[in-house]
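thread: overnight batch results

M.L. [08:02]
morning all. the overnight job finished for the chain we discussed friday. pasting input first so we're all looking at the same thing
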Amino acid sequence: MTQAPGLILAAPASGSGKTTLALGLMRAFCRRGLRVAAAKIGPDYIDPTFHAAATGRACFNLDPWAMRAATRAGLVGDLERDADLVVCEGVMGLFDGIDAAGTGSSASLAAETGWPVVLAVDAKGMAASFGPLVAGFAKADPAVKIVGAIANRVGQARHTGVLRDALARHCPDVEFLGGLGRAANLALPERHLGLVPAGENAGLADFVEAAADAVEEALDLDAILRLARASRFRAADPARLLAPLGQHIAIARDAAFAFAYPAQLQSWRRQGAELSFFAPLADEAPSAGADSVFLPGGYPELHAGKLAAAHQFRSAVRAFKGFVYGECGGYMVLGEGLVAADGTRHAMLGLLSVETSFAIRKLHLGYRKVRLRTDLPFGKAGMSFRGHEFHYSTVLAENRAENLFDSCDAAGHALDSCGTRRANVAGSYIHLIDQDGP
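M.L. [08:03]
and the structure it wrote out:
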């Protein structure tokens, strides 16, 4: 089997410009006629939508904590099989994970895969210190091979020259791959869960092309291609994550329900499930042939009034006889009501005994390990799964007797039981990623 070479674009810290650089690199290599496969480390839903826009193909998340090793190997194999180059964007700082050892970090995935790392450094306000900073990262872990460095947000040409010379002096084994200037047009809009998703960004195509223009002008693309390497995985079995919810899964997909992992959808198809999609914001109902409905996460809090008025969607899901499952935003919509940011309460589907509010905001963020308290189509009672929680809404009321999961955080500290099940309907705030296991 031919394996495409790959690399990880990482940084010393969040906010260093990784996503813009990744988009520019992906698009620039596509312009050369290469088939570029994209990956994102960690559980982020939004960055992969931009990667998909840049490459024209789905981006897979690779999660060193929430995925089993076999799952990661299978997904890397999928990426390498049908591409000429794999560009994987890191998460946070290179060594930042769930603990001081960097568990779940970009560095841990680099060590596991053998993919080389290109370090993107925000060089604004920095000169000769660039060299020692990169050298420190390069020497931190012999299992993590940093092969190149990109200086982001540089000033004039003299600034780039100082950065290049500093790297050559302090860390000659790491190549200087160029310096990207402080272009005002290379900024993406944000809101409370991060970047505004790609599907809502009308100017995204122009942004991606502008990022590619900047990358082509400033960076040594030939050197970056030369530094990429195939992973150490060989003949991995195709990845299978969660078991399907049914034989035909109707999945909500629009601006209110935008967070479904492409790797999970691929896994369901591989396991024999048929997938169809419907848009609740357009008042569409699930396919008549479906035996299960999935309401993924997204931004229902921004569209609560429209969802409350979507009569065909509401009546169809309420009358649905198969299994209905919701995650995060989908869980909120399955509940009795959702209080929007302005304090207005909107009636939701009323299928679960939960009431939520976006007017009372509190950040809930982190990895979760959960254990099922009851049998569901994707697992038996007692089975454990790993996932992620990220939302600002608050539970106002919930029937604790119907809780779905026992849960703990990534460090193993017990949390309150969570989620709800009633008859054929279940859901929770947890975005499930994979079964629990080594």
